[in-house]
Amino acid sequence: MMRKPIIAGNWKMNKSYSEAMTFTREVNQKIPSEDVMDTVICAPAIFLKGMEERAEDTPLQMGAQTMHFENSGAFTGEISPKSLADIGISFVIIGHSERREMFNETDETVNKKMHAAFREDLTPIMCCGETLNQKEEGFTEKVVSEQVTKGFNGLSKEQAKRAIVAYEPIWAIGTGRTSSPEDANKTCGLIRQVIEQLYDNETAQSVRIQYGGSVKPENISSLMEKEHIDGALVGGASLQADSFLAIIEGAKV
Ligand SMILES: O=C[C@H](O)COP(=O)(O)O
């Protein structure tokens, strides 16, 4: 099955608002049509509305880096799924390893957020991946299978098909150490198998799976050539317009 590639930049806590607006202006006219590929920037939440407005007539789409699962309430500092949908945001990263490590995100909150995303018609990019220790002890399959199984718990087949999974080995994030395309493809294939066991082959073949972890213009093509890799979640290399555009170019395989 031909799955549409999806390249998403995750800016994390970087850039000023004016830098974000300059970036959007610079890349705006150079983003491929949505028929060819989905192109997303997951920016700090306070930049999103301005960027969304600036990119309104272009194929560039915006995503949030996290959100709460409730739509309102006494959750000081949190951002609701409904408010993201309300300003025209299409995607949301859920369960990034930095959120799991530093902000108490668990498989249970990830699952609640997956349901919340679909409730508000946001497309979730659900992250999973093992630590270096887990990899060295041979636990990659176990860790990733469990994260995917728990993250997808209770999702309908239709919802599961629309979800995006980002496989990000934690030891490859921001380290310059990329997983080899073969290893990345193997784990992305395993994720597809887990989804097939949870649902069926058709669903597993529909889900788009990204690789993330030190993706650069130099390695994107060799990753994208692999059967189970449908895109990338890019941190550091998404911060500069030229490297982000080069990754998009390299993803057109
Ligand atoms: O969400 C993105 C990842 O954490 C990857 O970051 P990186 O490309 O800087 O390694």
Automatic annotation (TrEMBL):
Its EC number is 5.3.1.1. The keyword Phosphoprotein applies. The active site is at residues 96, 168. The lineage of its organism: Bacteria, Bacillati, Bacillota, Bacilli, Bacillales. Pathway: Carbohydrate degradation; glycolysis; D-glyceraldehyde 3-phosphate from glycerone phosphate: step 1/1; Carbohydrate biosynthesis; gluconeogenesis. The modification Phosphoserine is found at residue 214. GO terms for biological process: gluconeogenesis; glyceraldehyde-3-phosphate biosynthetic process; glycerol catabolic process; glycolytic process. GO terms for molecular function: triose-phosphate isomerase activity. It holds the Pfam family TIM. Homodimer. Belongs to the triosephosphate isomerase family. Keywords: Cytoplasm, Gluconeogenesis, Glycolysis, Isomerase, Phosphoprotein. The keyword Cytoplasm applies. It catalyses: D-glyceraldehyde 3-phosphate = dihydroxyacetone phosphate. This is Triosephosphate isomerase. GO terms for cellular component: cytosol. It is found in: Cytoplasm. Substrate binds at residues 10-12, 174, 214, 235-236. InterPro entries: Aldolase_TIM, TIM_sf, TrioseP_Isoase_bac/euk, Triosephosphate_isomerase, Triosephosphate_isomerase_AS. It comes from Alteribacillus iranensis. Involved in the gluconeogenesis. Catalyzes stereospecifically the conversion of dihydroxyacetone phosphate (DHAP) to D-glyceraldehyde-3-phosphate (G3P). NCBIfam families: tim.
